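In the current project phase, the collection of sequences with tokenised folds has grown. A sample record is quoted in full directly below:
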Amino acid sequence: MIKLDDIRRHAAGGVTRDALVDGQVRLTWGQYAETVERTAAGLTEHLPQEGAVRAVFLAGNSWQLTVAMSACATLGVSCTGLDPQSGKDDLGQVLSWLEPSVVFVTSEHRATLDQLVWPSGPQAVHVLLDGITAPGAPAAPGKHQALNFDLLTSAEPLRTLPAPRPYEAFAVSARSEGPSRIAVRRTPSEGRHLVDLVDEFGLNRDDVHLASAPPTEPTALALARTMLGIGATVVLADGAGPETLASLLVAERVSTGVITPSTLHGVLGLPETAEPSPRTRHLRFLLTPGAHLGRWTVNTAWERLGPVLHTALGSAETGLTAVMGPEELLVSPPRSGHTTLGTTVAVLGEDGQPVAQGESGRLAFAGHQVMDGYLDGETQVAELDLGWGAERFLVTDESGYVDETGRLLVTGRVTEVPVVVRDSAVDTELFRLESDLLNLPCLRDTAVMRVSSPVLGDAIVVPFIAVAVGREATGYQALSAACARRVPSLPAHVIAVDTIPYSPTGRIRTGDLLDAVLPIITLNLQLEQSMQQEMSA
């Protein structure tokens, strides 16, 4: 988040202008500056004098978290977001790697935090962001030091800023298989990133930005930081329901925003009387992670919100790598986009060298957003010369190609299987199947998951959300036909669901989804077998 010096600069240009809006709380730039100054002073009393000093948070968007992150930025302390849904073991491992000195948490996630154990945990300070200290009440005793946020904000303002610390920034990368990993950046690039995003999307200080995606989503955090960096107003609405978001779009005159696919589905699924469309004339730019966005969402967003929806491709390791605008979205396939400013993409063949344009291969990225490496293990990098000198590229586990227009298309995941075999492998076909299904206008959302179980055997499970209640039969027929055509070697179990869970980075939580649908599929199969046995008896 932005530092105190930047906040003071914006306050000098308009001390009473709104900086942060969080429900009924509105912080002007003057109040934002004063609160960050006091919070930073309060934190310095609890930070260790030696060794690495790091902070993490288990919290959604709030004005308190934004202030805390700005205070950390002012003190040169990295502040890393943790996904509370990633599981106890995964969170404990991430904490063991980071060894934070300060943990910011909300009441909602305090029970989760209390269950986590890591080596430096007893020495860490736990700051309850939404806690209010009773008059005369001491800090709660226990295995760690506990503070309520209001105690930090009541400290005397800083007299002088502390000496600069070595720069480091971390981002937790959730993985579909295996534990999360931690991407590390040791060279500051926020200033360059701000300039690129402003140029990319035409952002300015008069914008009102809706931050409805969790702060653990890298693109959402980068956009919120950028909007505050240029002096715009940020409306914090992480966790708000569709009706609340639709109202905020109108009441706050929102012009830009970041939204997750699942939240966007909810807003677009509102009944006609609740549609925000004729009143959202201020909205001109809405960004959502585009790795899993369907045709229905794109078409409906155009109809109800106008030409505002942009999709984004990226990761914790690479940052924001590609964006697709609203006009091209109407005709472009899912998982595609044009590379962002400051990003270079290379497509590598089996020999690790760039292939010709239009040819498929392994994707590698270079640029100021790309991480330096993983905190917890090796990183696959390559020195490549694309015609303007050698450059360091991060080699990813995704495959794809760049077409004749310069558009990047992600076509699958890379395994250790050779390219010739991989192109015909079932997993690659499943990735393509999911892209085909997302392009069907009769679905709101879908997922394709391969399973192996005693009951189902080797099969694929395809949950989907129909475009409307009563339209499940149409979706079932379309999906079943597509599965039989694309992957005839595996039986497909297609099932209608009410929701598809997403992580803060826009990835489907396949584990949670399978836990929800497998018992239903198993029960349906058992009923079918019973009926067949009765008919044959």
